[in-house]
Fold this sequence. Notes:
Elements: E1 3-5, E2 9-14, H1 35-43, E3 49-55, E4 76-79, E5 82-85, E6 111-115, H2 142-148, E7 153-159, H3 164-174, E8 178-187, H4 194-203, E9 207-209, E10 214-216
Parallel strand pairs: 1-10, 2-3, 2-7, 3-6, 7-8, 8-9
Antiparallel strand pairs: 4-5
Amino acid sequence: MNYAISPTAALIVVDVQADFMPGGALACDQGDAIVPGIDRLLSQRAFRHVVATQDWHPAGHVSFASSHPGRAAFEQLDLYGQPQTLWPDHCVQGTAGAELHPDIDWTTLDAVIRKGSDPRIDSYSGFRENHGPQGRRPATGLGGWLQDRGVDTVYLCGLARDVCVLWTAQDAVALGLRTHLLWDLSRPVTAESDPATRQALQAAGIGILESDALTAA
């Protein structure tokens, strides 16, 4: 089945940053494998609207295991009444690891949405931060940006498929957007998570497709 890219569709490229690549601080499984395909997709200029998200944490961020003495990376604790995974220090503002991948031509981007810059709150979704001390999930501004441009459909790719891409897709659905994940242009933190990710996507009504199924409208 082919999917025609309509003028009211947007491409959201999630967190394709150096720290999520092999050898990075929080490497995703085969994260570098998606880089050529994303670069090729952007070069085709098939989408009228293209947005990238970028993890942009201050040093000492609450999600870092190093901020919790005696705790190790990938442990969980309770934060504001929600489970919080503790991560290695990653995508620290102004560092090389936080930069968008240099092998992708980003000149077609319309906007970059930086997230996770509040030292008290983690941020997975491109649309909303995680739960904060007031029990709310603050908006990043991406939803309003898309609405202002009449976008009704989004296609997502990037990293990590089982965390930030998944949360972004679920929040897109919650905003009433038709949502698709480009499976071949995303990778998880660990491949073992893929069955659960597929199940969560299907439960939310999110389409799963390969990028070669896309055609220009």
